[in-house]
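#onboarding

Welcome to the new folks! Below is a worked example of what a typical request in this channel looks like: someone posts a single protein sequence, and someone else replies with the predicted structure as tokens. Don't worry about understanding the tokens yet, we'll cover that in week two.

Example request:
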Amino acid sequence: YFTNAAKDMCNFMIELQPQTSSSEGGITREEYIEKVATEIEEKLPTLFELDRIRKQLGEITPTAVVLPQELERFNILVSKMKVSVATLQRALAGEVGMSAELDEIAKALFNGQIPGSWRKLAPDTLKNLGNWIAHFERRYAQYSSWIEKGEPAVMWLSGLHIPESYLTALVQATCRKNGWPLDKTPLYTTVTSHTKADDVREKLHSGCYVEGLYLEGACWDIQSNCLRKSKPKILVEELPILKIIPIEAHRLKLQNTFKTPVYTTSERRNAMGVGLVFEADLSTTDHSSHWVLQGVALILNAD
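Example response:
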């Protein structure tokens, strides 16, 4: 509660700061917005050629279907950003009128926040503008690597627009390969000893490795390979590489594990359940009720 209250107070203070031109010796509000818009425009990549990529994929597998869907959504976001930034620069120069949408974008860029029209076309996040742009560039890098080198050995799940679709595709691919019933094949997860994606030498034959998960309410003991009480003054820490494997339900025998929910952001999920991606099995020496009371969860996007 206090963390959210402090964040809200900071956001209110940012919104209450003067929106007029600066005094002598500094740049004006319009100059600052134009500078930010120019920097963003320089970082925007070219659109992915979906037709060429679909032909390049060759054999259509469940996971191969996910890539064009992700690229299509990414292209829509990039197109919107390009149009918005170009039109905003023209409006600041006085060539076109400043609409309500452009005014909202200008205010967001000035305050270091993500414009609402961009946020609607991007994965859920609580990041500020600077961190979000870095996240945006890393998403593009992962998509480009996926196209050129094939499916990554370690998937950065936070970089996908709809991570649930990729996990569902993993289950579908395994069920097709082994002839298992789709509705009786859950996901089994285990935490590896690898802390970096480069430590993973080869891709799994069934399932995938996942990086970029953050643990809230507890810490991970690499030596004992289990959950431990949070360290003082450390609210969130990155989890080592997670291995996700589809398995037949009757073969899954879990003991001394805590079913940990994985959420998109630290806001977790709303009343409709939106925000929950999947559940991970984390080893523990304590009863699961202990971690429930601690509010332990995994999140894809750190604030």
